[in-house]
Specification:
CATH architecture of the largest domain: 3-Layer(aba) Sandwich
Number of strands: 9
Structural class: alpha/beta
Helix content: 40-55%
Number of domains: 2
CATH topology of the largest domain: D-Maltodextrin-Binding Protein, domain 2
Order of helices and strands: HHHEHEHEHEHEHHEHEHEHHEHHHH
Strand content: 15-25%
Length: 349
């Protein structure tokens, strides 16, 4: 039995030495009876457990275990060190594009994933599309009883709409919001004028109370009234509304993108991982998940299994898509590392 190596020790040994090192596995994973999923935690994990984890285990006998803390850096570290803490991660189109460019992903095992049984548009070379999600302007209605901000320009207008603000700590999302606030049409965001976007971000930076990094953190901040308006994932906001938190979601200028199920390159548990990805992509589990948490199902057959009221709350609803925008992932992906570096420097100065 091989003992599990800590990430800190793995990195200390150096990437060159580790590339030739044996794969480090938990004993349960070595037996192939578990798939480890990188989790966003909170209501996301609760909904995935009910819609995907438990039914998949009942059907296959393969247990699903979660590992918290989703980040691109962790994906890259796993591949470089061959210390695989998880088998499946769900990342957006931009991160997918960067991971492909950097050679960090397993190609889809079409046999294990039963790719021929899935809608063709869901199966990519290195991933399987899971759902669409939105990042929206959300505000507390009790703070703005006469109506709150309805656009990113309003979010920037601290005189007309005073109050504490909160942003998602993700470079390309905030930069796009900044350009929209500065009057750039949604269909003209790319190629992105990065310098202009950073200048606009500098205007709002003094008014940002918190830069959130975890979905559960964003919920806590707006639920407890620590902030009055926030850019947050639509499904997380709707979850709070259903818990009677007085929030309003604005779809105008929302960021909509697709998430993709990915397996890190070299993962010895890849076949079981792709088997799980196939289950997640099926219509019935996708509908079950969206009824629990309103993400937009990528499998179109799932929509017939959902209520129209629920569909209206998702990014997949046509009217929501019409007034939102989507990133040009092909433009961002090769520039993402530089954008992140500049973003980090900007945040700390």
């Amino acid at each position: 039995m091989v003992a599990r190596m800590s990430r800190r020790r793995a990195l200390a040994l150096g990437a060159g030495a580790l590339l030739a090192a044996p794969v480090i596995l938990r004993p349960a994973r070595a037996q192939g009876r578990a798939v480890y999923v990188n989790s966003y935690g909170g209501v996301w994990e609760s909904a995935w457990r009910k819609a995907f984890f438990e039914p998949f285990t009942a059907q296959t006998g393969i247990a699903i275990k979660t590992v918290p803390g989703v980040s691109f850096a962790k994906l890259k570290a796993q591949v470089q060190t061959r210390n695989f803490e998880w088998d499946v991660v769900n990342l957006g189109d931009v991160e997918y594009g960067q991971a492909v460019l950097e050679g960090l992903l397993e190609k889809v095992d079409r046999e294990a994933a039963k790719a021929d049984q899935l809608p063709p548009h869901m199966v990519r070379d290195y991933g399987i599309t899971s759902y669409s999600l939105g990042t929206n302007l959300v505000y507390r209605k009790d703070k703005f009883p006469n109506g709150g901000p309805q656009s990113w320009a309003d979010f920037w207008d601290v005189k007309k709409f005073p109050g504490s603000r909160c942003f998602y700590d993700r470079s390309f999302s905030c930069l796009a919001f900044a350009l929209l606030a500065d009057g750039v049409p949604a269909d003209k965001l790319y190629p992105m004028d990065v310098d202009r976007a950073f200048r606009k971000m500098s205007e709002i930076k003094p008014h940002i109370k918190v830069w959130w990094r975890e979905g559960s953190q964003s919920q806590q901040l707006i639920r407890d009234g620590e902030v009055d308006m926030i850019a947050m994932w639509s499904a997380r906001a709707i979850d709070l509304i259903e818990d009677n938190v007085p929030l309003e979601i604005v779809w105008n200028g929302a960021e909509i993108y697709y998430a993709n199920l990915l397996v890190p390159k070299g993962d010895p548990n890849a076949k079981a991982a792709w088997q799980f990805c196939n289950f997640v992509a099926q219509a019935k589990p996708q509908a079950d998940f969206a009824m629990l948490l309103p993400y937009g199902p990528a499998n179109p057959d799932a929509r017939a299994l959902m209520t129209q009221a629920r569909l209206r709350q998702t990014p997949a609803w046509p009217e929501n898509e019409r007034i939102a925008f989507k990133h040009d992932a092909a433009w961002i992906a090769p520039r993402l590392a530089q954008l992140r570096e500049r973003w980090t420097q900007w945040l700390t100065t």
